[in-house]
Amino acid sequence: MKVLGIGGSPRVNGNTDLILATIITGAKDAGAETETVHIRDCSITPCIGCEQCRKDLTCSRFLDGMQLLYPKVEDADALVLGSPTYNYNVPAGMKAFIDRLYPYYVFSDDRPRRYSSRLADRTRTAMVFAVCEQTDPSEKGFTLEAMARPLEALGYEISEKFPIHGFFDRGSVRGDEAVMKRAYVTGYRLVKGGVAGDAKTRG
């Protein structure tokens, strides 16, 4: 099983990075082949709606970081998307990444157009998590759904939506043993199909 982690935080070594790394460690310990990509390290131009990708089946308008990410997305059996909460939603980089997955949709010719996904060619799983400073769940806004719903539309089965509240200072989540343990076990379960088995605990 191949698991691809996509980090949406612009901040290096922040809480999103730590949670993502822990989830990916859990997946690796469960036997998966893993890779992590941070969107901040990629140059991703926002989609401009030119629709050329519907003919070319890829984005031929921009030769940017997405051209390196498309093969990784296609090859992965599971995705892990993680993001901090920015104004009740995902940061601009994560939104650009999600919008640039548009070439995988196949549309009918009627209106409103019905759609299917070329990524639904086999079973694909995904999990999403969001980090929010505030402890009130409503302050997280749309962050989890902004990642989960597009993946569902593309044919992914969402195994978990993981909200993480009350952390802002860089790396502060490391001190919460329960959150870090859940992150590790979540990654393990992503590979093992919901069975934690002999998953090790991580603090």
Keywords, separated by commas or semicolons:
203 residues, alpha/beta, Rossmann fold, five-stranded parallel sheet, two-stranded antiparallel ribbon, 32% helix, globular
Radius of gyration over C-alpha positions, nearest whole angstrom: 17 Å
Strand order of the largest sheet: 2-1-3-6-7
Largest sheet: 5 strands, parallel
Shape: globular
CATH architecture: 3-Layer(aba) Sandwich
Proportion of residues in extended strands: 15-25%
Provide the structure class.
alpha/beta
CATH-assigned fold name: Rossmann fold
Residues in helices, as a percent range: 25-40%
**Quick check: average pLDDT?**
93
The total strand number stands at 7
- Kindly report the name of the CATH homologous superfamily: Flavodoxin domain
Pick out the low-confidence regions: 194-203
Distance between the termini: 25 Å
CATH class: Alpha Beta
Could you walk me through the main structural features you see in this protein, from its secondary elements to its overall organization?
The structure is a single chain. This protein is of the alpha/beta class. The protein has a single domain (about 1-190), classed as Flavodoxin domain (Rossmann fold, 3-Layer(aba) Sandwich), CATH 3.40.50.360. About 30% of the residues lie in helices and about 20% in strands. It is built from six helices and seven strands. The protein has helices at about 15-30, 55, 65-75, 90-100, 145-155, 175-190; strands at about 1-5, 35-40, 80-85, 105, 115, 125-130, 155-165. It has a five-stranded parallel beta sheet with strand order 2-1-3-6-7, sandwiched between helices. Strands 4-5 form a two-stranded antiparallel sheet. Strand 4 and strand 5 form a beta hairpin. Helix 1 packs across helix 6. The longest helix has 16 residues, at about 175-190. It is globular. The chain starts with a strand and ends in an 11-residue tail after the last helix. Mean pLDDT is about 95; it is low at about 195-203.
